[in-house]
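This section describes the prediction task in plain terms. A model, or a person checking by hand, is given the sequence of a single protein chain and must write out its three-dimensional structure as a string of tokens. No templates, partner chains or ligands are provided. The sample shown here is typical of the held-out split.
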Amino acid sequence: MRKTGIFGGSFNPPHLGHKKLAVTAADALGLDRVLVMPAGIPPHKIPAAFAGAKDRAEMCRLTFSGDPRFEISTLEIDKGGKSYTVDTLTELKKLYPGDEFYLITGSDMLETFTQWYRWEDILDLAAVCSAIREKGKKLDYSGFTDEQKKRLIPVEADPVEISSTEIRAMLAKGEDASAFLDSGVVAYIKENGLYADRFPRYRRLVESKLDPERLNHSFGVSRAARSLALRYGANADKAELAGLLHDVMKNAPKEEQKSIIERGGHKMTRVELANTKVWHAMAGEAFLRLEAGVDDEEILSAVKRHTTGAAGMSLLDKIVYIADFISEERCYPDVETVRALASESLERAIIYTASYTIRDLASKGLPIHPDTVDCYNDILTDLTERK
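The expected answer:
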């Protein structure tokens, strides 16, 4: 029977302490392999400060490379949504019915283990290996039955006095954290601009106005927009900021959205009044201009146009429009098609998404914003004339 360890976590970022703990547990338990599993959206954490799932998985690969026992699993990321350990273990049992599973955790996690979702079922599915960071420390098993105690395995591990939270704080301030990270991870973070808090004021603004799910989306769009900007030669900082701010009014009540649109000087058309889903983009532009001190017309335009598109879109407009469709938490049926198109041509990606929007609204008998039709016609004509 294969002995498989499961080492899950946010890994935001993965550091040398994670690696040391996992290697120690693998050696002590004689594991045949260890699945290193970055979480999708952990259920007990606000996702706004997270690096992208793709980035965290790649940093895990860099951290744990060189030891053939370690495999990076994107099971929780691919599943989408919030991650619960019991669901992951249930899925792994189906995938590998002959394996014996060992869940690797720190000893501090054991202190709250009985508060985990369906913790008794977790112990039925896997033994729980707790790494003791203080030599000679005895773990408190008083809350467990004798049978459950047999599934709790302590392993002594030398501590590395650092946490991912502390590393992120160091990186946000531009401090050197290389002593705590694999050299490949250090290079990856620098190359991809991760963890630099470039817009603390605006980050706090969206954190104050958006719910966790919308906040996660906004951070995902900001990362996607930055990536597209680097690919297509736009200003990456502007793209990241516009992506961060694009949904700033999404959670505001409709009457508040309508009010600030009117204060911004825009008289809504009959089509706009009939389709409240487009209000937040117009409201976002007005709010940022009137109340948040944003005066960059390119950023304001990108926010305003990110839902409907428009004729004559700037490069930044196109980037934010498409970033909204391809951010990593998106999981609609055609998302991989749109991502593939975006990597080849922003214009082709816009044609694909705008035509879908038009068809979808028409099939539901809903009004179509003229800007969406103009966007489709304008870009289609440009593409045709280039041939």
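For orientation: The chain has a mean pLDDT of 91.
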